[in-house]
Design goal:
Elements (H helix, E strand, L loop, with lengths): L2 H5 L5 H33 L4 H18 L6 E3 L5 H12 L3 H24 L11 H24 L8 H6 L1 H6 L3 H19 L3 H4 L3 H15 L6 E5 L9 E5 L26 H28 L8 H18 L5 E3 H9 L6 H16 L1 H5 L3 H15 L2 H10 L1 H16 L2 H18 L4 H4 L3 E7 L2 E10 L5 H8 L6 E12 L1 H16 L3 E5 L4 E3 L8 E3 L5
Parallel strand pairs: 6-7, 7-8
Antiparallel strand pairs: 1-4, 2-3, 5-6, 7-10, 9-10
Length: 549
């Protein structure tokens, strides 16, 4: 990247507000239109009151944007945390939804303290320890769980209480017994989202699809008179079909107080000493931190100015935001990828776009709570089903399969493990499978968690020699050493004595080269020609060819 590009970097702070407020306000406004329905849907799917998600997004925009280490990420509640929070509400509340909500708020407060400490002690690098395929497997499992739960809301049916397998098993029953007027709203939302994903026109794309889904849903709700409880006959004139008598009413609309100040609730720490409480704390802090770090890194790749987030500062800021949110009744937040990528596409320049998005949400819930009440739950559920499908789409499965069979095995094992047990256990199973594969491929146990490398600088060139295995569980020290290198050097990786490179390390090398060269440096990899790949994918795991070992 040349000097002129760096000189054109948007300013930050108040100077950045003065310089870029038009672009940032427009983007913040468009992101606000996307965030409002998603915050409501995520909140209710998590077992929290609808306003909880909006409280979180307001804090994420107004507070976290001012202290974060990123430039264009949007902070708020995310679909990836629905499963974690809902499970905490269920296990801590033991059937009492309000008690479970307040106990979970307490768990969010403690989890946020853990996040702050992780950021302060620079634990952002711990995200490296999770193999890429295991993380993708975790997100795909979350997508499947979201779809399984929300499809019933799209159909206007409440399934019998039970575990996840029971909820999935009841989907055919819900299709057969759907509430037809509610299902029309839900399926219309899905049709709009699918159609919008296929549109190529950039001007039309500026209109957020979730906004159209909500507006169409409100139109149907008025037409079906959901504000008033009543019975209706589906196809009353079709004498050849049995009549379906069904009920609709305000229960199918978002229930929110007209006084926003009454939306605040305080945490209950009385379960602090229980195992369930600490399981919730660990899961919320681990999954939230991991998702936030991964999202921030992904958004950095989208940034047209190639700026890099300070991940540890960002994690601390998200922790502070979660601390405040947990104290006043909000969901946990992360750096959210869908709203952040929309922020980039809308032309945002600085973190003031995040600030404007939060401020507009605050203004809206204070001035127009009646409008929020007119949104049908089925419209919000269609947004979540679509989000869940994107997390667990067949394309995602095929992508991992093309990287390599062992990556696909870890991916599937993680998906099944999460669905059959819970998030933490499922991820742990995926990591154990990955470690087992490395041991079977001949990695010495001592090399499993300790990498052997040396760094030598000659003039403007830095030589990094790696011997033994470079795998997800041992390359953290190498990552730290690379982070300390000056920009603008030539970095030569010597891999002649590296007998195994796994997919996570190959992916890291690829991203490191892209980022380092974008800042004026140069990277070379010597010795890769002596390795054979486990698949045709350019970032697949590699081992030393038998002739050279």
């Amino acid at each position: 990247m040349n000097e002129s590009t760096f000189s054109a970097l948007p300013k930050t702070g108040l100077a950045g507000l003065k310089e870029n407020w038009r672009a940032d306000f427009l983007s913040g406004f468009l992101v606000f239109l996307i965030a409002l329905p998603l915050c409501l849907g995520i909140s209710m799917a998590s077992g929290f009151p609808p306003s909880a998600g909006i409280i979180t997004a307001i804090i994420g925009g107004v507070l976290v944007s001012r202290i974060s280490g990123s430039f264009i990420t949007i902070n708020g509640p995310a679909a990836g945390l629905i499963v974690v929070v809902y499970d905490a509400v269920q296990s801590l509340g033991e059937g009492d939804a309000m008690a479970g909500y307040r106990f979970t708020l307490a768990a969010i407060v403690i989890a946020s303290v853990v996040q702050i400490l992780m950021g302060v002690f620079k634990a952002g690098r711990l995200s490296s320890f999770f193999p890429a395929s295991v993380v993708h497997g975790m997100l795909a499992a979350i997508g499947i769980i979201i779809m399984a739960k929300q499809i019933h809301v799209v159909l206007g049916v409440t399934p019998d209480k039970g575990n996840l397998i029971s909820t999935i098993a009841q989907i055919p029953h819900s299709f057969l017994n759907m509430n037809h007027e509610i299902a029309i709203i839900g399926f219309s939302g899905l049709a709009i989202l699918i159609a919008w994903s296929l549109i190529k026109n950039k001007t039309l794309k500026m209109i957020p699809a979730p906004l159209i889904v909500v507006l169409v849903g409100i139109g149907f709700a008025r037409y079906f008179d959901l504000d008033h409880q009543h019975m209706y006959l589906f196809l009353p004139d079709a004498h050849f079909l049995p009549h379906h008598e069904e009920t609709v009413g305000p229960v199918f609309l978002v229930a929110i107080s007209e006084n926003f100040m009454s939306s605040f609730y305080f945490p209950d720490f009385s379960k602090f000493a229980t195992l369930e409480f600490w399981e919730a704390v660990v899961t919320i802090s681990l999954v939230g931190s991991l998702e936030s770090l991964l999202s921030a890194m992904a958004v950095d790749k989208l940034d047209p100015y190639k700026r890099h987030s300070n991940l540890n500062k960002d994690l601390t800021a998200v922790g502070v935001g979660n601390l405040v949110a947990g104290c006043v009744g909000g969901l946990p937040m992360i750096a959210e990828i869908v709203r952040s990528s929309a922020n980039v596409n809308n032309g945002a320049k600085t973190s003031w776009a995040n600030f404007f998005h939060g401020s507009l949400l605050l203004l809206f819930v204070v001035l127009f709570p009646r409008l929020i009440h007119s949104i049908p739950l089925a419209a919000l559920a269609s947004l979540l089903v679509f989000t869940g499908f994107r997390l667990a789409s067949p394309k995602e499965f095929m992508h991992v399969f093309h990287i390599g069979k062992e990556q696909f095995l870890m991916f599937v094992v993680t998906v099944v493990g999460v669905i059959a047990t819970d998030l933490l256990v499922g991820v742990a199973i995926g990591i154990l499978v990955k470690l087992s594969i490395h041991l079977m491929r001949g990695v010495n146990f001592s090399n499993l968690f300790k990498i052997n490398f040396s760094v030598e600088q000659k003039a403007n060139t830095v030589f990094i020699e790696i011997s033994g295995a470079a795998v997800f569980s041992n390359f953290m020290a190498l990552k730290d050493a690379l982070a300390k290198l000056e920009n603008g050097k030539t970095i030569v990786f010597q891999l002649n004595d590296t007998y195994l490179l796994d997919h996570t390390v190959m992916e890291f090398f690829h991203d490191f080269q892209h980022n380092y060269e974008a800042q004026g440096g140069h990277c070379e990899f010597l010795g890769l020609e002596y390795h054979e790949s486990y698949s045709d994918h350019p970032l697949a795991a590699r081992r030393m060819k038998p002739d050279y070992s």
